[in-house]
Amino acid sequence: KKGIVACVHFSWKDLLTGVVSAAVLWGIFWLGNFLSTKMFDFASGQIGSVYAMKDGCSQPLIAVLLLLLIGPAEEVFWHGFVQRKLSEKYGFFLTVGVTVLIYSAVHVPSLNFMLVMAALVCGAFWSTIYYFNRNLFTVIVSHSLWDCAVFVVFQMVTYFSCNGMRFYVYPDTFVTPKRFEEKYKEHDYYNEMFGI
Question: Is there a contact between 87 and 134 (Cβ–Cβ < 8 Å)?
């Protein structure tokens, strides 16, 4: 039986797999974001509330925490411990299924349907990769890069507040928060709200 440390090993192939899988998952979420906001009236507010959790925090600090602490810690626990223990006794479907259900259930108290569904998709994606890849390094890279991309670099929802009200805007693909501000300052409604 391997310990958690023995399940983490570097290879260029696994590094590439982690990077590519993070990009693929970001694409899946971009499509999911587009479709869900067309299908459900509540989607934009619920997605926006997830982004709002980092209100008042430094973007660089968030990026560092996601890359070096949060992403790796989640992978070590959920796949390095929970899934690894299950896989010692059970096959693919039960191992991945139980891991994903528990991971998703942790998000249920938020009462945020979109967050729970996001956890379900992410959980299934990374659990499947780890089951066949058996290298925590791969999913740590994937999870950390995806977190940073979604929450800092390529945000899917950009919001701003004015007079106690929150407004959600869906920027074009690959519009970073800084470029978003520069782009939308050109619009009259942005100027009016911020008194520019």
Answer: no
Q: Which amino acid is at 159?
A: Y
Tell me the one-letter amino acid at 42.
F
Pairing assessment for the beta strands 158-162 and 165-169 based on DSSP bridges: antiparallel
179's tokens: 């470029």
Report yes or no: 126 and 75 within 8 Å, Cβ to Cβ: yes
Helix (H) or strand (E) segment spanning residue 85: helix 84-87
- The predicted pLDDT at position 194 comes to 41
Q: Token match 């959980």: residue?
A: 123
CB atoms within 10 A of CB 130: 26
Consecutive 10-residue averages of pLDDT for the chain (196 residues): 74 96 94 87 80 72 90 94 94 96 95 94 97 95 93 64 49 47 51 42
Q: Nearest to residue 26, comparing CAs of 108, 144, 111?
A: 144
Name, in order, each residue with C-beta under 8 angstroms of 99's C-beta and a sequence gap of 6 or more: 78, 79, 82, 83, 86, 123, 127
CA atoms within 13 A on the CB side of 158: 20
Tokens of 101: 């259900």
**Helix 12-39 to helix 113-133 angle, to the nearest 10 degrees?**
160
Q: Which two tokens stand for residue 84?
A: 């690894």
